[in-house]
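Example 3.2
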Amino acid sequence: MHRIQLDKDIQPLSEFRSRVAFYFDKVKKTKRPLVITQNGKSAAILIDVSEYESMVDKIEVLEDIKLAEAQINDGLGISHQNVKKRFAKRT
């Protein structure tokens, strides 16, 4: 995901409401998220769909890695030699 530019990518809700289409186009074009504030505090983030899908994919990979590490730590891993033997039997 592209980094937020603090001077350009934070808008109050009132400004966002008045220019919704503009901000949708901006997020789609720049691929940067838009932070929407309410009463001076961050309230929501608008993000491009493709950027969101990319983030979800990355999170799923990280969760798989975390699960694999836990399985290895619990002794559920398979040695490289055993994997090679299993694949050799398939051919």
